[in-house]
Amino acid sequence: MTSKVVTKSVVIDHINESIGLSKRESKIFFEIMMDLIVQSLKKKSEVKIVNFGIFRIKNKKARIGRNPKNKVEVMISERNIVKFKVSDFLLNSINSNMNNFDERS
C-alpha cells in the first residue's frame, strides 16, 4: 500500500491480497463491517476495536454561531457527532515508527 490516501478500494484490494477472498467477497466483507459500525453508532452504542480505538456518539446542543465574513448570527441546530479516541497501542505504534524513522535519517 503505497498510496497516500487509503480509500475503500485500497482496503478491498488489501483484503483480497491478504486473505485471498475474491474482490466481490472482499467488498461484501468490508461493507458488512462498515454497516455494523454505522448501525451500532445509530443505536448510540460504542464501537471498540481493540488496539485501534473507540468510536462513540456525542450529542452537540443547539447554539448560536456567527458567519465570520459578515458577523451575522445563525442558529446551529442540535446534532450528533462521531468522536474517535485512539488506543494507546495504536498511538504508541505510530509514534515509535516515527522515532525509528527520525533515527535513520
Describe the overall structure.
The model has no long low-confidence stretch (mean pLDDT 90). It contains three helices and five strands, in the order ααβββββα. Strand 1 (47-49) and strand 2 (53-60) form a beta hairpin. It is elongated. The protein has helices at residues 8-19, 23-42, 88-104, and strands at residues 47-49, 53-60, 63-66, 73-76, 79-86. The chain is an alpha+beta fold and 105 residues long. 47% of the residues lie in helices and 26% in strands. Helix 1 (8-19) crosses helix 2. The strands form two sheets. A three-stranded antiparallel sheet has the order 1-2-5. The chain has two domains: 1-43, no CATH class; 46-105, Irregular (HU Protein, Chain A).
* Percent of residues in beta strands: 25-35%
The strands making up the biggest β-sheet line up spatially as 1-2-5
| C-alpha geometry | elongated
**Strand-pairing-aware structural class:** alpha+beta
Number of separate structural domains: 2
Secondary structure topology:
Blueprint: H1 8-19, H2 23-42, E1 47-49, E2 53-60, E3 63-66, E4 73-76, E5 79-86, H3 88-104
Antiparallel strand pairs: 1-2, 2-5, 3-4
Helix pairs in contact: 1-2
Attribute tags:
three-stranded antiparallel β-sheet, two-stranded antiparallel sheet, 5 strands, HU Protein, Chain A, 26% strand, 105 residues, alpha+beta
Q: How would you summarize what this structure contains?
A:
With 105 residues, this protein is an alpha+beta fold. It has helices at residues 8-19, 23-42, 88-104, and strands at 47-49, 53-60, 63-66, 73-76, 79-86.
